[in-house]
């Protein structure tokens, strides 16, 4: 029998915590509107499926800690590309993030994603028996461009399992059906590794990746307070021009703009958690917004409502 969990979210922090197979943090919305997201998780034997969607442009940090080997992809050709680890990730790509690696991702509007994973021992056995070659180093992140046939099969099986699970298909209660499905999913995953990988990265990219990994770790250790460019550069021991190049490569924006967006999102999170209208000024100043009129205008421009409207929406009645 399959296990199915489906959840919806309007709080970015809850959405972060709902994603499995990765530690997702510091989701920073960069587009006007009210955040809306959904996650679906399905367990088909040893194969785990997951899919998610969110409606606003945003940046997010991703850290891979699970020993399971997973692949992530876009569920169809209509999903707009993202910037992931400083490179465009589009509908023709599949990525397998290495264990103990970290990544930044930026989206530019409504976004949908899908993933599947296997325990390491099942993955190793499947690679050796299905494609007959050495197991991929689990510490390496791999970017793959599967054949049209293999990519179609991957998307199709992910979509069909979701449809069957949500329709309450009784066949999925039969253990032999689940075992057969598990085998089909495993082949679809491993086939992507048979098509070759794109690992062409220069020394400059690897240095920037290391800087951004330290940036992510430092932000995680300071995730409840405002931070500014000078202290970030000092903590990372990098110059402002170097950090700017890294952020423009991985986030598509300057570090100053990213840190401003981060402060705005932290303020919004507090507004959603505190019911008193008097706290608008207190919270704005807590995150370094000293010009309160400008803060209110910029907040409304970014989120589509005033700070007081956010408070009113989340206040108990």
TL;DR?
This protein is an alpha+beta fold and 317 residues long. The chain folds into 2 domains: 3-198, Sandwich (Jelly Rolls); 203-314, Homeodomain-like (Arc Repressor Mutant, subunit A), CATH 1.10.10. Helices cover 45% and strands 21% of the residues.
Word description of this protein:
This protein has 317 residues and is an alpha+beta fold. The chain has two domains: 3-198, Jelly Rolls (Sandwich); 203-314, Arc Repressor Mutant, subunit A. Helix content is 45%, strand content 21%. The chain is built from eleven helices and 13 strands. Strands 1-3-4-11-6-9-12-13 form an eight-stranded antiparallel β-sheet, sandwiched between helices. A five-stranded antiparallel β-sheet has the order 2-5-10-7-8, with helices on both faces. A hairpin with a 2-residue loop joins strand 3 and strand 4.
